[in-house]
Every structure is written in C-alpha cells, then in structure tokens.
Design brief:
Oligomer: single chain
Distance between the termini: 62 Å
Helix content: over 70%
Structural class: mainly alpha
Order of helices and strands: HHHHHHHHHHHH
Number of helices: 12
Strand content: under 5%
Shape: globular
Length: 285
C-alpha cells in the first residue's frame, strides 16, 4: 500500500546543509578537546545550550503557530534567571576587582549590547545566504560564547548556575525562531547553526587568559555583566501591542484583555526565574 503525501511529510528526514553539518562536526571535535582539557563546566553549558535550542526548535517546528503563553513563560523564566545570575555572580566579581572600572565595564556592556542589537536589525535590508533570524541568532550565540568562555576560563571555580542561567533563553528563542521559519515556509533545521554557536566559541575562548591587573579584570567582568543584563532585559516578555507576544495572539479585534492577562504571567514567570536562581544558590552554597 502506497504512502499518502501527508504520511511522507511526517516521516521525512529534514535536510541539513553543509554549513550546519560542518558546524556540528566542529562542535563535536571541540567537545572532545574540552574533555581532554578538563573543561567540564563549559562542556556542560555548551551542550545544554545546544539541547535547549535544538529541542525547543523541534517543538516549534511541529507547532502550528506560536503559543503566546509558552513564549511568555519561556522568556520570563529565562530573563528572570539571567538578570539574577548576572547581578549575583558576575557583578560582585567585577566590582571586587576594581569598583570604578568594573562599573564602566557594566556600562560599556549594556551600551554595546544595545548597539549590536540595533545595528543587527539592519540585516533585514541586506541580502545574505542565511535567513535573517538565523543570522542574528548565530551572531548572538557566537558572541555570548566568547564571553562565557573568557569568564569561565579565568574563573574556573565559578559554579554552573550562572552559565546555565545565561543559556536558558536558548530554549524559547529556538522555539520562536523555528515556528517563524516554518510559518514562512523555510527549513527549521537552520536553527542547528545558532544552537552550536555558544559551544564553538566558549570552548575556544577558554584558553584566553586575562592580565592580572585589577582594572583590566574589572572592565572585562563588568562588560560581561552588562552584556548579559542587556540580553536578559531584551528577553523580558513585553505584552504590548505590536510586540512578539501580541503577534503570536490568534485573535481578531481588540487584544487588550488577553494582553492584560499575559502581563500577570510575565510578572509571575520572571519572578520565578529569579527565585529559581536564589534557591539553587542556597542549596549549592
């Protein structure tokens, strides 16, 4: 008995481009190096980032449309955890090395994060081989990996809570991006590229040792704090007209009532994200 077209679509294996396949192979090779070098924390963070984004992308690709409640809770939990982690684990380190230079580093990190995010939107007007969303996510993942690698490479005693909190947003980002790609009739397997991005640069950047000068370390760790705070603030679920959450609402007419309800979910999810980090810190401490 022949298979129907619908059945073939369900069992078909998604195609993976040479770029995505090459990135996966390089990620596995770097993971082997991380094992030999004893970079267990970075290895774990890298694979959690990959699993979170790739797994969520698989769900997003099979979902008809983006679920606004899922986006709110995913973004809320991740952003709450990231803000708390950056404030608790990175900020004191930056200020501890040098109060003023650490503060300047935080300011530079926030401003650079804003600038890169704003300029990144210009990619929408540039022809490129990659989808714009995939290109932005890949650039973001590679940059975040560099910062994570430098931080953990120079602070090997730093716990996993910070790193896992930082990459927690990979899940909702992968879900939303894959759903958007499928909606635009594009291949969601392209998410594999940003999914391995953190690992590619984090493991590589771990060998970069910072000078012992307190001012330099204050600026670097302050910069990392500012970058992660900017990313976390950017992922705060904004339930406003014209926002990503509003676009995901499958309603006609006035959506104010639904958005008001989702605002309560946004507050609850960000609060729980922060509390989760606090509880993990209490248990591990």
């Amino acid at each position: 008995m022949g298979l129907t077209t619908e059945t073939r679509e369900l069992i078909s294996v998604p195609s993976v481009s040479r770029l995505e396949l090459g990135a996966l192979v390089l990620f596995v090779a770097l993971s082997a190096y991380a094992v030999s070098a004893g970079l267990w924390k970075l290895l774990g963070i890298s694979w959690v980032a990959f699993a979170a984004m790739a797994g969520a992308a698989l769900v997003g690709a099979r979902t008809r449309g983006e679920n606004p409640a899922v986006l709110v809770w995913g973004y809320g939990l991740a952003s709450g955890a990231m803000i708390t982690s950056a404030a608790v684990f990175l900020l004191p380190t930056a200020i501890g090395h040098h109060a003023q230079f650490g503060g300047f580093g935080v300011a530079v990190g926030v401003l650079v994060g804003f600038a890169s995010h704003s300029i990144g939107h210009r990619l929408a007007h540039v022809d490129m081989p990659l989808d714009r969303t995939v290109a932005e996510l890949s650039a973001h993942a590679l940059a975040a990996g560099v910062v994570i690698g430098v931080v953990y490479g120079n602070m090997p005693d730093l716990g996993l809570v910070l790193g896992l909190s930082i990459v927690s947003h990979k899940g909702p980002a992968g879900y939303a991006a894959a759903a958007r790609l499928v909606r635009n009739e594009k291949d969601a397997t392209a998410i594999l590229l940003p999914a391995v991005g953190v690992g590619l640069t984090a493991i590589t950047a771990a060998s970069l040792q910072l000078p012992a000068a307190p001012a330099v370390r204050g600026v670097v760790f302050g910069f990392a704090t500012g970058i992660f705070l900017h990313v976390a603030m950017d992922f705060l679920p904004r339930c406003e007209l014209g926002s990503e959450i509003h676009d995901a609402l499958a309603v006609d007419g006035d959506a104010h009532t639904l958005l008001d309800r989702l605002r309560l979910h946004a507050v609850a999810s960000t609060t729980l994200g922060g509390l989760a980090v606090f509880c993990a810190w209490v248990v591990l401490a």
